[in-house]
Amino acid sequence: MKIDTIQSFIPPTRILMGPGPSDVYPRVLQAIARPTIGHLDPAFMTMMDEIKVLLQYAFQTKNALTFPISAPGSAGMETCFVNLVEPNDKVIICQNGIFGERMKENVERCGGIAVMVEDKWGAAIDPNKLEETIKANQDAKIVAFVHAETSTGVLSDAQTLCHIAQQNNCLTIVDAVTSLAGSPLKVDEWGIDAVYSGTQKCLSCVPGLSPVSFSERAVNKIKRRQSKVQSWFFDLNLLMDYWDKRVYHHTAPINALYGLHEALLILKEVGLEKSWSLHARNYRAFHAGIEAMGLSFNVKTSERLPQLSSINVLEGINGEAARQHLLLEHNIEIGGGLGSLAGSIWRIGLMGYGSNMKNVLTCLGAFEEVLQDMGAKINQ
Ligand SMILES: *Cc1c(COP(=O)(O)O)cnc(C)c1O
Q1: Do 158 and 189 touch, CB atoms closer than 8 A?
Q2: Distance in angstroms (rounded) separating the CA atoms of residues 199 and 258
Q3: Can the peptide bond before residue 184 be classed as cis, meaning omega within 30 degrees of 0?
Q4: Which contiguous run of DSSP H or E holds residue 265?
Q5: Domains in the chain with CATH codes
Q6: 338 Cβ below 6 A of ligand 1
Q7: Ligand 1: does its nearest atom lie under 6 Å from the Cβ of 340?
């Protein structure tokens, strides 16, 4: 590549219907384009306070320690683990997809002991298995799991899993990256101690921020730590001072936070419960169209995520080639399978701003055309 030929980057127009990022609200893009001000400017600080209040609403929590980490969802995950897990702490991880694997990696890097409870990829976490494992590991301190597994399109029963953890005196770390704003999530009512999310899934904001929230029990464990948090950047003791007392820690991603503020405001305007039901309604329409074509889902009905569907790749069809056709001929991005599901599923997202009837119909029409062109036998 010759440097002299490089020009301003103009992205192609796409419809983002994969596992994230989702299409960003135009209002969010407009907010991000507003002039940058200082991150210690009083006007900016007021906006930060509003983000906290809006996030408490989105998470349904009164937790004082609720704010966005200045990095993507994976960093929210890391923040939870590096602060809550001390060397030799035993952590039970319920795994039913790729993100549970990352939790294990996090625990081990913190010097903790990960006890895995494994479920099939494509199935929800079995609460009975957690109960058995927790009984057999009375010294466990934390239970961690993914609420909405984006790698498979599965929703687990977070409320029941948290209840089991609480009854056995364990704290909970819950990955709500894909569930926030797309499926019911009630941090206080369900007794979640540490939760992290992302901005680029059902919030339809730009990627790069990770909203987190910690209960008082979680904060107490962090305050009682014997050893220093191994990460300087994600040490909540320092971040608390930044968000509360404005002690300089790092320069906030100012414009991205304008975007998050706008996305959370939109969520408040729509209403949280309405947002959940809109995701469910658009999924039902999509589901009807997929089944009418003769395609099938990889997850049983009761465990499906409305915001992300796993569709089985048809026999004799190259799933990756179909994805390429959708992108290059129809400008629609969808996802493929990860890990053991690579090549055997398509992952189609209907998240946030992208969860609407126009996208449902556009995607079904384009999908039908692509599959027919590839010689698939589908119903018309
Ligand atoms: C997308 C996702 C993440 C990672 O978020 P990034 O912003 O890509 O770092 C973690 N967990 C789940 C369930 C996700 O869907």
Answers
A1: no
A2: 12
A3: no
A4: helix 254-270
A5: 26-268 (3.40.640.10), 271-373 (3.90.1150.10)
A6: no
A7: no
Secondary structure of residue 162 in the 3-state scheme? helix
Q: From the first residue on, what is the mean pLDDT of each consecutive set of 10 residues in the chain (380 residues)? A: 96 98 98 96 95 98 97 98 98 96 97 98 97 98 98 98 98 98 98 98 98 98 95 93 82 97 98 98 97 96 98 95 97 95 96 98 97 89
Q: What is the DSSP letter of 22?
A: P
Answer for the pair 260, 203: CB distance below 8 angstroms, yes or no: yes
Helices and strands in the chain: count of H runs, count of E runs: 13, 14
Indicate the SS3 state at residue 44: helix
> How big is the chain by its Cα radius of gyration, in Å?
21
Burial of 108 (0-12, 13-18, 19+ CB in 10 A): middle
| Protein residue with its CA nearest to atom 5 in ligand 1 | 73
**Position 144, amino acid:** A
Burial state string for 66-103 with b = 16 or more CB within 10 A and e = fewer than 16 = bbbbbbbbbbbbbbbbbbbbbeebbbbbbbbbbbbebb
pTM over 0.85? The answer is yes
Q: Whose CA is nearest to atom 8 of ligand 1?
A: 73
Q: How far apart are CA 285 and CA 103, in angstroms?
A: 34
**Cβ pair 243, 56 in contact under 8 A:** no
Return the best residue to mutate from 24, 69, 74 for the ligand 1 pocket (most ligand atoms within 8 A of CB): 74
Question: By the 8 A CB rule, do 112 and 85 touch?
Answer: yes
Q: How far apart, in whole angstroms, are the C-alpha atoms of residue 32 and residue 23?
A: 15
Closest CA to 37 of 265, 260, 253: 253
Beta bridge partners of 148: 155
